[in-house]
Amino acid sequence: MATTDKAPAAPAHDLATIGVVGAGVMGVGVAQNLAQTGHRVLLLDLKDEVLDTARAQIRQNVRFHGMFSGTRGGPSPAEVLERITFTTDYAPFRDADFVVENATEKVAVKESIYPVLDAVCPPHAVFAANTSCISITRIGSWTGRPDRVLGMHFMNPVPLKPVVETIRGFHTSQHTVNTALRFLGQMGKEGIVVNDLPGFVSNRVLMITINEAVWEVQDGVASAEDIDRIFVTCFGHKMGPLATGDLIGLDTILHSLQILQESYGDPKFRPAPLLVKMVDAGLHGRKSGRGFFDYSVPGAAPAAA
């Protein structure tokens, strides 16, 4: 049964140094949130140019938040960046108390990371996989510490989302769950603990919803604009399913559906041919400038997005 938990007190470790693997959209959000809440962050990616882009994005995000949120007294962009070590080397992770892995949603990519983390990180370090669909029990099997592995499905944009879907694998200990909830509490977030089946709660429902909306565009039931308008105006959603797909990344949606279809053997997860075609064409959503909506022209995207 899913439960909503508060972060417990009495830390065994102070969780001062956090490793973040992957400097894409999610990794940047996690690193920024952590640095803004006083943590020392080790942000790792394979290429220096990716890290340079991440540095610039964090500076812009913090400046934007300070200008438009109406808050005063928060850390400056310089203070936030001073807390982050940008690295292409795993060696600094020997000091990590907790690691959040944000690699792309491909099993082969993630599987290559965990043995390295296992060898470098201290024995007490907890590994949190930021995944939307991949089994946490399976990820734990790639390490020698499956009891200290769990899932943390952060939502985008990370600094603005107050709740994180937190997944307990078969071997995940209660101590690890407690540590993870305390870690989230330090970030100003709450964890909702769920059990481990691919897709968990949010994406097992969301991927089908987005995929069905794609089928409706493909079948000519309605335009992308009208489908999303129905969800925003009739159901009070802040964003329609197709704009949500564009925000997540249509390539990520496709990978997630493929993992769910493989995991359950259920045709209900079969990706719409239109989705496959768009991904093949490089129309990945916001990050590519165009998906179901055009983000290259100011004002062209739906207001709800």
TrEMBL record:
The record marks H153 as: Important for catalytic activity. Residues 199-295 form the 3-hydroxyacyl-CoA dehydrogenase C-terminal domain. GO terms for biological process: fatty acid metabolic process. It comes from the Bacteria. Residues 17-196 form the 3-hydroxyacyl-CoA dehydrogenase NAD binding domain. Keywords: NAD, Oxidoreductase. NAD(+) binds at G22, A23, G24, V25, M26, G27, D45, E105, K110, S132, N156, K287. InterPro entries: 3-OHacyl-CoA_DH, 3-OHacyl-CoA_DH_NAD-bd, 3HC_DH_C, 6-PGluconate_DH-like_C_sf, 6PGD_dom2, NAD(P)-bd_dom_sf. Gene3D superfamilies: N-(1-d-carboxylethyl)-l-norvaline Dehydrogenase, domain 2, NAD(P)-binding Rossmann-like Domain. SUPFAM superfamilies: 6-phosphogluconate dehydrogenase C-terminal domain-like (SSF48179), NAD(P)-binding Rossmann-fold domains (SSF51735). Its EC number is 1.1.1.157. One of its GO terms (molecular function) is 3-hydroxybutyryl-CoA dehydrogenase activity. This is 3-hydroxybutyryl-CoA dehydrogenase. It comes from Longimicrobium terrae. The lineage of its organism: Bacteria, Pseudomonadati, Gemmatimonadota, Longimicrobiia, Longimicrobiales.
